[in-house]
Amino acid sequence: MKKIPNQIFSISIIASTVILIVFVSQVYAVNNPPSGQNTAPGLLKKQVNTTGLGKLASLGGTLSNKPSGTPPFGKIRLEEAKLRVCQVREKVITNRSNKMVQHANRLAAVFDSIATRIQNYYLTKLVPQGKTLPNYDALVLDIQTNKNALAPLLAAVQADVTNFKCDGDDPKGQLDQFKEDMHAVIAGLKTYKRSVRNLIVVVASIRGTGEGNATGSAVQPSVVPSVVPSVTP
Asked: Highest mean pLDDT: which of 11-25, 66-80, 90-104?
């Protein structure tokens, strides 16, 4: 074999070294792309897919750890705001409702007092004079029936006011129930007042008559006070 000259041998070693350096540089560039420089499309796609799957897995873990049935944050803030507004108005609502109930109780007491005075007048003044009413007992029974019917209605609205709380299970439902019960009280007061007025009218009709049953008529007297409460809590 012929010996390779030293010069040619040295060139071969240098060329091999250069090729090796270039190869190593390319491999390093592929595995560690510099920031701000383009990456090969295949490698970029692989990197994006890997990163996306990692983020998706992380997001899935976060969602799976969220307690079921927890209301959204915005809804919680809204409910808290409504509660604060209700608490500010709670004292006003309670005071106004109490005044309505007290007024209704006063009216019931006034009607009861008027009915009692008319009955006493009839029994102590007119009956001794022989002035009687054939339907007196029925009129008195009607008054008593309406009075008895009004008592539980007044108790119901008083309970509505006492039990009203903004931090209760359903404060709006409690207010609606109070309004409904108050309408029933107003209707009961009107019925009670009408029965008392009926007794006043027939008793007044026999005051100027002679002895015997009532046959005359009289101007219908008024039952005071005549104002019933309105439902505006």
From this structure: 90-104
